[in-house]
Amino acid sequence: MSFAKFGKVSYVSETKLQEFETKLEAGKIMGTKCKKCGRLYFPPRADCDCMKGEMEWVELSGNCKLMTFTTLHFAPASFRYEVPYTLGVAQFEEGPTVLAPLSKELGEDEIKIGMSLKLVPVELMGGRMIYELKKLESQ
Amino acid sequence: MSFAKFGKVSYVSETKLQEFETKLEAGKIMGTKCKKCGRLYFPPRADCDCMKGEMEWVELSGNCKLMTFTTLHFAPASFRYEVPYTLGVAQFEEGPTVLAPLSKELGEDEIKIGMSLKLVPVELMGGRMIYELKKLESQ
Amino acid sequence: MEDAQVTTNEIQASIVCSATHYDKQRTPAGVIAEYLGLNPQPTFNVEAVCASSGVGLRIGWSFISSGLHDTVAVVGFQKMTELSSAEVQEVMGRSGDVMWESPFGTTMPAYFALYAKSHMQKYGTTEEQLAKVAVKNHFYATKNPKAMFQEEITVEDVLKSRMIASPLKRYDCCANSDGAACIILASEDVARKVTDTPVWVAGLGLASSPMALTSRGPSYASFDCSVNAAKQAYGMARIKPKDVDIAEVHDCFTITEIINYEDLGFCERGRGGKLAEEGQTYLGSKIPVNIDGGLLAKGHPVGATGASQIRTLVKQLRGEAGETQVNGAEIGLAHNLGGIGMYCAVTILKT
Amino acid sequence: MEDAQVTTNEIQASIVCSATHYDKQRTPAGVIAEYLGLNPQPTFNVEAVCASSGVGLRIGWSFISSGLHDTVAVVGFQKMTELSSAEVQEVMGRSGDVMWESPFGTTMPAYFALYAKSHMQKYGTTEEQLAKVAVKNHFYATKNPKAMFQEEITVEDVLKSRMIASPLKRYDCCANSDGAACIILASEDVARKVTDTPVWVAGLGLASSPMALTSRGPSYASFDCSVNAAKQAYGMARIKPKDVDIAEVHDCFTITEIINYEDLGFCERGRGGKLAEEGQTYLGSKIPVNIDGGLLAKGHPVGATGASQIRTLVKQLRGEAGETQVNGAEIGLAHNLGGIGMYCAVTILKT
Ligand SMILES: [Zn+2]
Ligand SMILES: [Zn+2]
Questions:
Q1: Domain assignment of residue B2, yes or no
Q2: CATH 3.40.47.10 region(s) of chain D?
C-alpha cells in the first residue's frame, strides 16, 4: 500500500500506514498507539520502539502549541511557486509533535512561539491531502 | 572544461581532458604519457600514478586485439533503442586497453577473442563523438 | 535483535549498509536508527554496492576490537522500489566508470558477461556448466522459506531463458529485490553473556580492484580483489580453503560463482566449471556453496546481501539449518563482492 | 600525501567520504581509489552527510587501534557540480525525513532556522549576534588563500542580505562548494617514522539524534548529538572544554556555530549569542573558533568538511598556521555535524 495523495509531493512508494491518508480525507488526524506499552506516536508508526506491541489507530484532537517556525523564501524545485511559506513544529495537547505548514491566513507578524493552533486536514487542488496549522479562532 | 560531445550519453560535467574530444573530432585516438616515469594511459588521465609527472598527449595507432566481448539484449534507458549491441575490451599494440562498442558491421559470429581490430573515431547523428572497434579489413 | 537477546539500549553503535543511489531517503542511517530506537548512539552509512554489509561487518569488528564499543548492529538493507523504474534504469546505467564506460551503455550483466566470455575462452567453461549453478541455487531456494524463487529449474530452463548479455541469460542473473538483514556483533564478554551458542569472527579480508575494466587485464577470468581478500581472511583465521565446511559466495551471476570457487581456492584455477558440473558444491559433497539459494534464487537486496550470508552461516554453525544442515559445520566462509568486482569482503566464522 | 611523506603503497586502506546523493558517479571509492593508486588495498564509502569525513576518521582510527592496519587515508570530497541544478534542487528537497517532512517543502536552511527561532525565543539571541559569527568567519577567510570568499563583510551586510528562511539570511548560510581533503592516519610507530611533528588523536566522540524533528523536542535550542559526542571526546582525551586551544566547529549556519559554543561547553547554556557578540571566539580571545573561515566563508564541500577541519587543526598544532597561528596551541577540537543535526563527530587532537 502506498500514499497516493498525502503531501504536496510524496517520495515514499510503500507504507504500512495507508489508513492515515484515508482518515485524513475523512477529516481526521490519526496517530498510532502501542497496545503493549501505551506509547502514542505522531507521525504514526507501524511498529513501537518497545518492539513488543501491536499498534492501534487513535484520533488526535489537533489542538497544539507552536514550538518554533520559519518562513521560507527559497524552496525545493517542486515548491518554488509557493514561496514565501511558513513551516512550524507544534506539540499536540496529547504529547507528540508535528512539523507542518502554517495556514497562509496567518500573517507572519501574528505568529508567536507558544501560540495555540489547530492541525486540520486540507484538500489541495488536484485532490492531494495535507494537514496545516490554523488559528484556533478560524475553526 | 567539459566533454560536450563525447559518448552516446555523457555524465561528467567537468574534465581536465577536454583536448581528447577535440582530437577525436580530428580523427585521432589520444592517450596521455607521464613525462617523468613514461607510463602511457588510455583512457587518458590528467595525473600520473607516480604523482610526480606532467603529462603529454600521445596519439595511439588504434591497432588492438580483442580480449573479451558481450552482446547486450537489455540496456540502460538511454540505450534502449539500440539493442542488441556489442561491447568489448581490447588491448592496443602500445599496451593500454579500451572498453568500446564493436562496429555493427561485425556479425556476432565473426567476433572472436584474440582477433585484430582497430579503434576509430565515429561521429554520431547530432554531432556526438564516440570511438568504435572495427574490422582491420574495413579500414 | 530478538534472536540476539539484546535490547536497543545495549547496542552501542549501528552501521547502516546500502547501495545509496537506490534510496529515495538520503542518508538512511538517520531514519533507520531512529525507527529502531538506536539514538543517541553512533550511526552512519556504509556503501560498497553489493558488498556494503560485508564492509559494515569489518567496521563493526574493528569498533569492538579497538575497544570503542562492546556491541554493534550492522544493518544491511535495500529497497529497490523507492525509485521509479525510469530512475532505477538511469542509476543502473551508471554502475561503472561514468567517464569512460557508462557512456557506451554498459550494464551489470554486461560487465560479468565480459568475464564469462573470457573464462569460457581461457578454460573451456560451458554454458551448461554456468546453468548448473543456477539449477543448484534454485533447488536450495525451495528449501528456504525466505527465498524469492520457490521453484526448481532445469539446465534446459536456463539455456532457453532470454538472452540478457551473451552468454548470460535470464536465469544466469540474480534478481534485485527488497530486503534487510541485521548482524549483532559483540565483544567476547558480552557474547558469552547473551548467548550459549556464540559464533566467532575468525578471519576478515577486504580488498579492491580498479573500477575501470581497462585497468584490470590482461585476462578477465578472475577477480583479484577476491583472491586478495580471501588470502587475508584465511591468514587471519589460520585455515586453508579445504577447512571450510560451508560457504556463502557472491553469485550475482552464475559465472561469478564459478570464478569464486577458483578465487577462494575451492578448486584449481580453471576448474570452477567442472566443479559445478560434477555437483561438488551440493550438500554432502566437496564443499556446500549457497545452499540457502544464493543471490540467484534467494534474491539480491544489494545492501543486505552480505548480512544475509552471515545469517545463513550463523544458522549452520549453530546447527539450526534444518533440512539443509551441514553435519558438524564448524567453519563457514562468506564472500561478498561489490559492484562490478571492485570491492571484496571475505569473512570466516567459527563455532 | 606528499605532505605526509608516505607513498600510495604504504597506505593500507582508504576510506572515501561524501554525501553520495550528490555524486553522479555511483560508489565513488571505486574510481577514487583507482585514480589515487590505492588498489588493491581495502576501500569503501562512508556517508553521514556533512559529517562523513568526521565519521571516516573514527573508522580509520579503529582500523589502526584494532591492529587491522597501520596507515589509513581518509579522503573527504564533494563535487556538487556533477548533477544538473534541477537534480541538485530535487536532492536538496529530500534532506529530511522523506515520509513526513520533505512532502511539506523543508530545506536545510529551514531546519536550522527552526533552531534559530527557538534559540532566540528561549535565550534572547539576536540577529545581530548571528551576524557577528558571519563577520568573524569572513574576516578569517581573507587570511586563508584556500577559502571561497575573500572579502570582509559587516554586520549590516549580513542583516541586509536576502532572507532565505527567517531569521536566516544569505550571509547566515554557508555555500556548498566543490572540494576535497585527505587525512593520513598512522599507528604510533609509523607516525614517528614518517614525521617529526606527529599530531595525535586524543579523543573521539560520535553520537546521533533522531532524524525527524518531531522526535527531538521539547526545545530546539541545542543539538543532543553534539552534547553527547563532545562528552565522549572530552572523556576519552581527559580534558575539559577550557583546555581547548583552538576549535573548528560546524558553522553550516551562523546559528549552528552559536549553539555549538554551548553544546561544546565553550560558554554557559544560552550564552552563545553573547560570546559571539563579545568577539570571544577571535584569535587572542577566550577560544579561537573557525579562524580558517569556517564553512560560512571557506565553503562547505559536504563530504570534505570534516577532513578540512582536521587539516586546519594539524597546521595549528604544528605551528604552521602563519598569520592566524594560535600561540602555543597544543589541543585542538573539531566538531562535525551531519545533515539536519542527526549525526555529530567530535575529534580532539593533541601535539
Ligand atoms: Zn510499545
Ligand atoms: Zn609518472
A1: no
A2: 8-104, 108-174+196-350
Chain C segment 97-156 residues within 8 A of A by beta carbon are none
Position A112, amino acid: K
CA of residue A96 to ligand 1 center, whole Å: 15
Question: Chain D: nearest CA to B13, how far in angstroms?
Answer: 5
Q: Which residue has the cell 577550557?
A: D242
Predicted ipTM of the assembly: 0.94
User: B6: which chain C residues are within 8 Å (Cβ-Cβ)?
Assistant: 103
Cα D5 to ligand 2 centroid, rounded to whole Å: 17
Query: Three cell numbers at C54?
Result: 560485508
Write down the catalytic residue from C182, C300, C335, C344: C300
Residue A6 falls within a domain, yes or no? Answer: no
Measure the CA–CA gap between C350 and C245, rounded to whole angstroms: 10
Q: Which of D283, D338, D269, D322 is nearest to D111 (CA)?
A: D338
Whether B7 is covered by a domain: the verdict is: no
Beta carbons of D114 and A85 less than 8 Å apart: no
State the pTM of this model: 0.95
Neighbours of C213 (CB within 10 A): 27
Cell of A139: 475553526
Asked if C24's CB is within 8 angstroms of A11's CB, the reply is yes
Domain D108-174+196-350 has CATH 3.30.470.10: no
Integer Cα distance of D180 and B12 in angstroms: 17
- What's the pLDDT tens digit per position in C79-122? 887 777 777 777 877 888 989 999 999 999 999 999 999 999 99
Is residue B32 in a domain? yes
In the residue annotation, D138 being an active-site residue is answered as no
8 Å CB contact of C82 and A12? yes
D210 alpha carbon to ligand 1 midpoint, in Å? 18
Q: Are D282 and D288 in contact (CB under 8 A)?
A: yes
- Which one, of A119, A110, A117, A121, lies nearest residue A137 by Cα? A117
Least Cα distance to A135 among A99, A27, A111, A109 occurs for A111
Render pLDDT for B90-116 as a digit per residue (tens, 0 to 9). 999 999 999 999 999 998 899 999 999
C37 at interface of A, judged by CB pairs closer than 8 A: yes
Q: Residue A48: which domain range?
A: 18-135
Which residues from D are below 8 Å from A24, CB to CB?
Answer: none
Which chain A residue shows the shortest CA-CA distance from C33? A49
Select from 3.40.47.10, 3.40.50.150, 3.40.50.2300, 3.90.1150.10 the CATH code of D8-104.
3.40.47.10
- Report the number of distinct structural domains present in chain B: 1
C339 and D27 within 8 Å at the Cβ level: the answer is yes
